[in-house]
Amino acid sequence: MYIAGIVLFNPDLERLRENIEAIAGQVSSVICVDNGSDNIEKIMELLSKYNNVSLEQNSKNLGIACALNQILKYAQIRGSKWVLTLDQDSVADKNLISVYDKYIELPNIGMFTPIIKDRNNPQLVKLDKEYVEIPECITSGCLTNVEAMYEIGGFDEKMFIDFVDFDACHSLTERGYRIIRINYCGLLHEVGKTKSAKFLGMNVEIYNHSAFRKYYIIRNGLYFIYKHKSSLNPVKEYFRLMKYFLLVIIYESNKKEKIKSMCKGFCDGIKMTR
Question: Which residues on neighbouring strands pair with residue 2, listed in sequence order?
Fold first, then answer.
């Protein structure tokens, strides 16, 4: 038995409909956890059209980590060993679950992920093997071992948003579990409104996240490095955060507001490591 969970926050209803219709027929049930959406009545109207889709409402935005833990609990209560997590704007391939099912008996699996096609960057990763072990993956399209996640204490709700997925991956691999990417394009996903630029002769992606997101990217990035310093290359990760900071200063709009948020994120991130 497989269960799917979708985290919602002010979703585009047409994209959400596409998301649900792609996955509802592949699993026994779908749980949508809403984090205080303004369009909750329209969400309820949409979900009422599906027999195996239910809704759990939070009165306010409790963060993606909390919502993912609610999905895990839903799966655990129903005795499901595996749960598929999806972002609200992702669309699964019609064969996603059946492909995952072929590999479900592999040993020590914490998570499975497919090759993901980005709506804004359609280039695909090419793999020579059926599957490959990787250090981390995003939660959207990810089939997660429920028992393994409870072993590591679930998703870290201190993080709220950003690095929540990578943190879980590293917590699993540090416990001996494996993250496996299947050589199969199983998900259509939008990473963000990106644009390309040149930085020190390198091609880089500019994400133009909001100031709100900038805060959590810097804060949680520092906390993530501290938490997993034994399995990461801290110097490399600090350099990545500094590069991100510079790219915002050089290429993005609303610099003043974003820099202020990142500085606050830096200070709060340092506090989280003490």
Answer: 82
pLDDT at residue 209 in the model? 84
Higher pLDDT, 207 or 50: 50
In the chain, the amino acid numbered 43 is I
Based on the fold, state whether residues 204 and 182 are members of the same structural domain.
Answer: no
The two tokens of residue 258 are 């974003």
Give CA separation, 258 vs 63, 68, 212, 245, 265, in Å.
20, 27, 8, 9, 10
Reported as a pLDDT band with limits 50, 70 and 90, residue 74 is very high
Structurally, the chain folds into a number of domains equal to 2
Q: How far apart are CA 5 and CA 75, in angstroms?
A: 9
Mean pLDDT over residues 48-68, rounded? 96
- Of 157, 189, 221, the position where a domain reaches its end is 189
- In a shared domain, residues 86 and 202: no
Domain that holds residue 256: 195-272
Of 211, 234, 231, nearest to 170 by C-alpha is 231
* pLDDT given at position 29: 97
C-alpha distances out from residue 260 to 1, 210, 251, Å: 47, 12, 16
